[in-house]
Amino acid sequence: MNAPASPQTIRLADYTVPSYLVDNVDLHFDLDASTTQVTSILNMRRNPKGPGEDCVLNGEHLQLVSIKLDGRLLTAAEFQRSNTQLILPQLPEKFQLEIVTEIHPDQNTALEGLYHSGTLVCTQCEAEGFRRITYYPDRPDVMAVFTVTITADKQQWPILLSNGNLQEQGELEDGRHWVRWHDPHPKPCYLFALVAGDLYMQQDSFTTISGRDVTLQIYVDKENHDKCDHALMSLKQSMRWDEEAYGREYDLDVFMIVAVNDFNMGAMENKGLNIFNAACVLASPQTATDNDFYTIQSIVGHEYFHNWSGNRVTCRDWFQLSLKEGFTVMRDQSFSADLNSAAVQRIDDVDQLRSLQFAEDAGPMAHPVRPDSYIEISNFYTVTIYEKGAEVVRMIKTLLGDEGFRKGTDLYFDRHDGQAVTTDDFVKAMEEANHYDLTQFKRWYTQAGTPVITAFYNYDAIKKIFTLTLQQSCPATPGQTEKQPFLIPVAMGLLDSAGNSLPLQLIDEAQPYDKDTRVLELNESEQTFRFIGVEQKPIVSLLRGFSAPVKLLIERDNEELAFLMANEKDSFNRWDAGQSLFIQIMLSLIADYQQNTALQLPEILVKQCAAVLQDKAADPALVARMLTLPSENYLAAQMKVADVDAIHHVRKFVKDSLAMQLKAQFDALYQQHNLPNVAYQFNSEHMGRRSLKNVCLGYLMATNDPMQTQRCLKQMKQADNMTDTLAGLRLMVDQAGIEREHALRAFYEQWQHDRQVVDKWLTVQALSSLPDTLIRIKGLMKHPAFSIKNPNNVRALIGQFCRNNPALFHAKDGSGYRFLAEQILVLDKLNPQVASRQLGAFNSWRRYDEKRQQMMREALQSIAQQQDLSSDVYEIVNKYLAD
């Protein structure tokens, strides 16, 4: 396997404090898209706690112009320079460095550091992009006060932005102008930001809880001037929520958001100047779906909440990434739950976790929430760090309670304001604020893998005692064969035959337990809990609200799952029981299909789905999710050997059968929630109605009734919102024929000038179930709407096909695998981060049949054999192919 030159493994165990600290930074940018000159003035001092080594500054893809030490120009003999470092020996205790470099934004296709995007010049510095701008100790535990001066052509770039508050600005005689920004709060260089462009600005204001007025500004391309309202409203909601929920107030005079078309991530929390992928900030009912509105609200909240959980208190090193990301994801999930439907939010969060993170835990890239080592840190911006990290914080909140958790966060923020800290510091604050020992709990940060809880129970009808035994285990993961028991909060309840709650008093308790749900603390490999005063044999409900990120093994027949689907008090567990019923039946049908036995849908499933459709009191959004079948990828994860063809056939059979048998109910519910004369609103009620309506339309289209095709086309034509338009288009792309081509052509002609909508057009075609989809994708890659250099285009077309169209990606001829390998090699030369993330489609390659495994191995080897792979791609391919 060809490796990058001397790939270096970075290990947490090797962490040492920095030898030198930076007190303040004065940056001067002479801005030009072709060649930008950067002058960096660093006031530095030796760290008394440091190892006392030479001063090492990081730098990549830089042209060094000059270095001055305390005003004296250094000769080449006075420093050492490599492709990645600048080493300065024998420096005084305190000194000033002035370094001048030149960089080339328009050549920067990696989109790290300072780069050119359309008419903008902007930055992305997390995790290690600042070293592409100037030489600097590019590590998060070096925090400094930044002052930034930008000089540029005024006509080309009338807007010049950076972190903090605007101090001064002026004009020069040559048609150029300048601005100076100052951020009074010390920050690591990964939070530095700069944006220059000719942009539309929408402004508002927010009054903090202490009475300070903060200016709010959103900057977008001028043609998107009408798409800022939702993001601005979401920002104000976020600011108020963080004050009320966590007591955290904003700390600068201005908060800015800029929308950028070419961006590797969703958004970046740079102090006071958040840079967003345009897809994550621009929204109007005509161009954005309900999911887009929801996602924008969540991401705006997430990046704003980072002002405290990530900026004011940051991570000491990149192994602590979940300290800021997991905690902040948990915060943005709570924010979204408070503003919308808490039940649906929890279902969606867990659905994503189980579909993506559980697969990561079961694959070659499995790693702890706090990793032990990495080669390329960009590869560890994963669902384990973010989503599982959020679940770990949520479990602490479950164990401590809402009040105790708030006491812990208050202590954490107050104690560590202005510091770079670790996950241990976070847990310690929780412990000390609540006098609660979380020593065992910290294994969630250090042990990889998804724990498995196996439940056994029996009922003594004479003594009225219910006995519940829970066992926990965790499978081996790369580098960790043996696991110690976790501390797992298990929220549970007991139901009688009518669905009423039964008492939850344990045998050694003197007083009755007066709540419907109880949190058990499972901290041993096996524990038994005995409940007294249980008057009848109960139905046990475990992991209510998904109280821990674990797999639950418990024997339930279809009748018991159907009972929980109908009677469970906890909305999440009600949905989960329905999903389990779907999966149990579908796995049985898959076995029948593999044995060439005729498929027959059990009546109990039809009956339960009918009951859900007829539940007039239920939240439409919850009903929509209960009627949504488990994905093919999730079904594959439930099988020892994933049978792609059987899964696809059976899932289609179940949907088609339900559609035919419940057609009248789906039709009635569609008509009930189809309100063409009601103007679009983004709120829980209207979102739920649209969601359920479009789920029903999907089932109706599965009947192959030509009238439903006309209904689908009519909805697309009459809709005043992208949610309904795109729902129709998604269904039409699976219908071969002239109507499909007409719908796709008409959609593109209408929206070809809107980049975010065009990405939706690419995605619906990538997810088509028709056999010519890969041929169509290859054709679309030559379309003017697609650029391999744009991460959003790549994710919309290539990424969606490879990750979310399993039946065709895993085609028997291996064409999907070869296609992905070819694209990764192209992308690796342009943007290694994007390339490495596309490799995730191969994560579970060992779960498939031998023939598919061999073809995927060959595809991975074809990548591994290439010369000069980036460290991003090299690390993942190396792990995938390891024995």
Automatic annotation (TrEMBL):
**Which part of the chain is the Peptidase M1 alanyl aminopeptidase C-terminal domain?**
559-881
Catalysed reactions listed for this entry: Release of an N-terminal amino acid, Xaa-|-Yaa- from a peptide, amide or arylamide. Xaa is preferably Ala, but may be most amino acids including Pro (slow action). When a terminal hydrophobic residue is followed by a prolyl residue, the two may be released as an intact Xaa-Pro dipeptide
What InterPro entries does UniProt report for this protein, alphabetically? Answer: Aminopeptidase_N-like_N (IPR045357), Aminopeptidase_N-like_N_sf (IPR042097), PepN_Ig-like_sf (IPR038438), Peptidase_M1 (IPR001930), Peptidase_M1_dom (IPR014782), Peptidase_M1_pepN (IPR012779), Peptidase_M1_pepN_C (IPR024601), Peptidase_M1_pepN_C_sf (IPR037144)
Give UniProt keywords alphabetically.
Answer: Aminopeptidase, Hydrolase, Metal-binding, Metalloprotease, Protease, Zinc
Q: What's a Gene Ontology MF term here?
A: zinc ion binding
> Its biological function?
Aminopeptidase N is involved in the degradation of intracellular peptides generated by protein breakdown during normal growth as well as in response to nutrient starvation.
Domain Peptidase M1 alanyl aminopeptidase Ig-like fold stretches: 449-552
Q: Which Pfam families match?
A: DUF3458, DUF3458_C, Peptidase_M1, Peptidase_M1_N
Pinpoint the Peptidase M1 membrane alanine aminopeptidase domain residues: 232-444
Q: Which cofactor does it need?
A: Zn(2+)
Group of enzyme by EC: hydrolase
Q: Which GO terms describe its biological process?
A: proteolysis
Keyword S-adenosyl-L-methionine included in the entry's annotation = no
EC number(s) per UniProt? 3.4.11.2
Family note:
Belongs to the peptidase M1 family.
Identify the residues that the record assigns to the Aminopeptidase N-like N-terminal domain, covering every copy: 26-191
- Entry's PANTHER family? PUROMYCIN-SENSITIVE AMINOPEPTIDASE
Q: Tell me which species this is from.
A: Methylophaga muralis
Has keyword Flavoprotein?
Answer: no
| Name of protein | Aminopeptidase N
Gene3D superfamilies the record matches:
2.60.40.1840, 3.30.2010.30, Neutral Protease Domain 2 (1.10.390.10), Peptidase M1, alanyl aminopeptidase, C-terminal domain (1.25.50.10), tricorn interacting facor f3 domain (2.60.40.1730)
